[in-house]
Amino acid sequence: MAEFVSTRSLTGETVDYQEAVLRGQAPDGGLYVPAADTRLNANEVSDLAGRPYQEVFDVVRASLIDGDIPPEEQVRITAQAYAAGKFPEAKDGNLVPVEQIGDNLYIQNLSLGPTAAFKDMALQPLAREMEYGLSETDRELIILGVSSGDTASSAEAAFKGLSRVLLFMMTPAEGMSDFQKAQIAEFSGGNVHNISIRGSFDGANALIDRIKKHPEFHDVSAINSINFGRIAAQIPYYFSGALQADNGEVDFVVPTGNFGNIYAGHRARQLGAPIRNLVAANNENDASHRAIQDGVYFRCDPQVTSSPSMDICQPRNYERLVYELLEGDGQAVRRYMRQFAETGKVALTAFGLKPSAIKEMGFDSYSSTHAERLDTIRWVYSSSGTVIDPHTADAVTAARHMDREVPTICLATALPVKFEATVREALGFVPERPERFKDVGKNGHEDGFVPMDCDSDQLMTYMREQVAASA
Ligand SMILES: *Cc1c(COP(=O)(O)O)cnc(C)c1O
C-alpha cells in the first residue's frame, strides 16, 4: 500500500491512494503528498522508451500507488481513459508526441484529448478511478471545483453521466475564450452544474475553503490539481517526453498557473525521469516566477491575460514544494501558509532557508507579456510551420531566453483552436479546426451557466437545491 500524508499534518497520519483521491484535499486543509519516495531504476526507465503511452502510464503509476488500485483494474481504467478514439489526431498512436522546432528546442503536445487541453490527460483516468473507488465503498460524492476554463470542460467530459458524482464547476465570468465558454456550456445538465462567478479564480477558490468549514459541505471533494490524483496522472508523460527527445537529461518548460503540472514534473524527476531543470513559465500573473527567483511568495493582483488558464496568483500546489523545503514539518507549513494568508507575502529566509533554495532544487522561471506571446507564436510558425496556442507560447518564450544546453521540451498545454482570437491577432489567420471541433460555439453559450456573486451563502443555497433535486 502507498501512503499519503497531508502537507499540514501534525501527527503524520497517512491514507492510501484511493482515500487521498476521493477526499481531494486533506481535512486539515493541507494537500496530500506521498509519505515516502519511490524510484524506478535506470533500466526500468530506459525500458519505457518506444512503448505505447498506456504502458508507460501503467508502469510509472504502479511504482507510485503500489497496488492501491488492483493492477487488472488499473489496466482497464488506462485503456478506457486513453482509448485511441479519444485522440483522433494522434499520429501512429502516439498520444503525447514530441516535435523538434528549433536548436535543442522541442514541443511535447499534451492536448490531443477530448477537450483539446492537457487536463484531459489527468481527468480522463481520474474520473474512472474515483468511480471505481466509490463503487467499491458504495459512496456518492459532491465535487466542487473552480476553473479558469480548461479544467471545467475537461472534468465535465470525464465525469458527465457518472451516477455517483454530482459536479459543480465555478468559472470566472471574465477571461475565458468564446470557445472555452461554448465547450463548457454544452456539458450543463444532468450531474453537471456550471456556475459563472463574478470574481477571480482565486476568489472562487477561497469560496471553497469557506464552504468546507460548513458541516453540511465539509466533505465536498476536489478535482483541481490540489487532488493528488491529478498529479499522479501527469507524471507519466514527463517520462515519455524525455525519452522521445533524447537519451540523456532534458529540461522541461511548463506553462504554469496553479503549479500542478510542474509539480508533477518534479515528482517525475524524483521517480527517476531524466530531467535536469523544470522551468515555470508564467504570464503576467507571476507568483511562482517570483517565488522561484527571489524566494519570496508574494500574492500578485490577478490580471486577465491572453493565456487565461494561467491567470492564478495563489498557486495552490506551491504548498507541496513548501512542504519539501520545510522537510515535511507540517507545523512549519501551517506557519508559512498562515503568514501568506495574513500578509500576502512570505520569505524563505524567514524559515531559515536561502532565497535561492527553490532554484537549487532544479527549478527556474520566466514571466512573459502579451507582446512576447504574440511574437513567439509568429516565430514558431515562421521557423517550423507549427501553430501554437498562447499558453504554449508562454513556455516557448521562456525557452527562447534560455541557453538550452540540453534538449529543452516545452509542454503544449492547449490546441490553438481554444484561443483563436489571440492566434488570429498574432498571425492574421487561424488554422483549420480539427473536424470534431468544427461546430463548437455555433449555438452560443449564455444558457449553460448560472451567474452568481462570489458569495458562499448564494453558492450553498444553489448547491442544496441541486442536491435535493438529484436525490
Ligand atoms: C491548467 C492550464 C495550465 C496551468 O497548469 P497548472 O497545473 O495549473 O500549473 C496551463 N495551460 C493550460 C492550457 C491549462 O489549461
Helix/strand structural class = alpha/beta
The counted number of beta strands is 15
Strand content: 15-25%
Strand order of the largest sheet: 4-5-14-9-10-13
Question: What is the overall silhouette?
Answer: globular
End-to-end Cα distance, whole Å, is 35 Å
Question: Which value, in Å, is the CA radius of gyration?
Answer: 21 Å
Distinct compounds present: pyridoxal-5'-phosphate
* Tally of helical runs: 19
Specify the biggest β-sheet. Answer: 6 strands, mixed
Uncertain spans: none
Approximate helicity band: 40-55%
Q: Mean pLDDT, nearest integer?
A: 95
For this entry, give a set of tags.
single chain; 471 residues; alpha/beta; 6-stranded mixed beta sheet; 4-stranded parallel beta sheet; 15% strand; binds pyridoxal-5'-phosphate
Topology:
Elements: E1 4-6, E2 14-15, H1 17-23, E3 32-34, H2 42-46, H3 53-65, H4 71-81, E4 98-102, E5 105-109, H5 120-137, E6 141-146, H6 150-159, E7 165-172, H7 178-185, E8 192-198, H8 201-212, H9 228-234, H10 236-245, E9 250-255, H11 260-271, E10 275-282, H12 287-294, E11 296-298, H13 318-325, H14 330-343, E12 345-347, H15 357-360, E13 363-367, H16 370-384, H17 390-400, E14 408-412, H18 420-427, E15 450-453, H19 456-470
Parallel strand pairs: 5-14, 6-7, 7-8, 8-15, 9-10, 9-14, 10-13
Antiparallel strand pairs: 1-2, 1-3, 4-5, 11-12
Bound molecules: pyridoxal-5'-phosphate (PLP).
